[in-house]
Amino acid sequence: MTHSLPYDVNASILFTELPVLQRPAAVKQAGFDAVEFWWPFAQSVPRDSEVDLFVRSVADAGVKLVGLNFAAGDMPAGERGLVSWPARAQEFVDSVDIAVAIAEQLGCRSLNALYGNRVAGVEGEEQDDVAVANLVLAARAVEKLGGTVLVEPISGSDAYPLRTAADALAVIDRVHAEASVDNLAVLADLYHMAVNGDDVGAVIATHASRIGHVQIADAPGRHEPGSGDLPLEHQLHALEQAGYSGWVGLEYKPQTTTLASLDWLPRERRSRRWAGGTRTAGLTERTI
User: Fold this and answer.
1) Backbone phi, then psi, for 62, in 5-degree steps?
2) Fewer Cβ atoms within 10 A, N terminus or C terminus of the chain?
3) Is 152 assigned a catalytic role?
4) Among 234, 253, 182, which residue's Cα sits nearest to residue 212?
5) What is the pLDDT tens value at each position of the chain, 288 positions in all?
6) Is there a cis peptide before residue 266, judged by omega within 30 degrees of 0?
């Protein structure tokens, strides 16, 4: 049971041995055709020259940018998005303009809006109202590209209110109900959903049509596939059978080096040319 979905590399968590601008080329050298990033800048509003250098690094490497986060605050410090943070709403809005400009140049059509942690001293209802307004704004901006805004449930932050696919879908449904936008979808990170106790199989069976992008890591540990106990091959096969045909982002923490952590995936399976059923004989069930 081997799926034929194409893989991309999240170069904000992989290839961190290298500076950001060198990572797209390293991804290509490792045999992949596509890359995704969290917000690749130190500030929510980088200088134009920084944006230009990032765009050039992806274009020159010859990889496709298939996913990009809007600005999400200080991730190493525990911040997880600006969408629902009233005091930083303008930062988010500014980052939307920048992200859309990058996406337009590089052909990216999936942009991830991390919801944001609950903020002390602010009512959750107020944060949710701000989030809806910001998601509407982002969806309308991305719609001009024919793109999708992703809403992601994540683990690892008790203050982050979207834990399950149902939580993300509830936000999306509210946005749909309050505004005339319909280009929002769930970012289904199979690791985050599993460790949060979500029934991943049921989510796939029920909501595959509402999944806009998929990411994987194994659990426990959030390391490379094969290092833990998650049935990732079965889940990806189920997604494909349910009609998902998009990218699968490798978003895990390597146990050693990035290149060593990729040994589970034969080089011939790293290129999109493999997708569509041209499978290589001898792949094991554990190879996903």
Assistant:
1) 75, 25
2) N
3) yes
4) 182
5) 689 999 999 999 999 999 999 999 999 999 999 999 999 999 999 999 999 999 999 999 999 999 999 999 999 999 999 999 999 999 999 999 999 999 999 999 999 999 999 999 999 999 999 999 999 999 999 999 999 999 999 999 999 999 999 999 999 999 999 998 999 999 999 999 999 999 999 999 999 999 999 999 999 999 999 999 999 999 999 999 999 999 999 999 999 999 999 999 999 999 987 665 443 322 333 334
6) no
Show the tokens assigned to 148.
């999708």
CA dist 9 and 32 (Å) reads: 7
Tokens of 234: 């079965």
Active-site residue, from 152, 224, 233, 240: 152
Taken as a whole, the chain contains a residue count of 288
Instruction: Quote the pTM value.
Output: 0.94
Residues contacting residue 184 through CB under 8 Å, at least 6 positions apart: 135, 139, 148, 149, 150, 151, 172, 175, 176, 212
Which position among 36, 233, 240, 251 bears the catalytic label?
251
